[in-house]
Amino acid sequence: MRSEPARAEEALEDMADLFRVLMRDNRDLAPLADEVELCRQYLALEKLRLGERLQVEWHTKNMPGDALVPPLVLQPLLENAVYHGIEPLSEPGVVSVNIFYKGGDVHAILRNPYRMDGGSHHAGNKMAVDNVRERLALHFDAEASLSARVSTGAYEVHIRMPYRNAQSSLLRPNAGPVAEAGRG
Fold this sequence. Notes:
Blueprint: H1 5-23, E1 30-31, H2 32-50, E2 54-59, E3 68-69, H3 75-86, E4 93-102, E5 105-113, H4 127-140, E6 145-151, E7 154-162, H5 166-171, H6 177-181
Parallel strand pairs: 2-4
Antiparallel strand pairs: 1-3, 4-5, 5-7, 6-7
Helix pairs in contact: 1-2, 2-3
């Protein structure tokens, strides 16, 4: 903190933002751009801790930032990517985030290094994956999916959600109180 006070202050502000999101009522959908910003803040904090061992590739050029998604749909998966994929490595590793729109859906593909032996970490209990899968089902029912797979040296999670934004939510029947108020 003494050697880089501005960097320390920025890290504390990022942590405060993360805590605010964790503590608020997360039953409502939020803009994807907000979720991505939260993930960028989280990964910046991890980069402070892990240094050059954590490399992050963002592919968001085709991301619909106004898409509504469950809050914390990406962050727990990125936390797993860092814990299980980067921390066990002695050399740098890449976490890749690819978010795009295709065929009426929003896709998020997260990749991280994977070691079959798990390194010095335990194998995990898939709680984050199961939790995100449940929240996707709660908000989108069968219209959304989450799949996870191991490929050569990598673990990949693919989330597919229907594209909905604030405007389309107003037009959908049973979309909640905002839609009801607009029915006149």
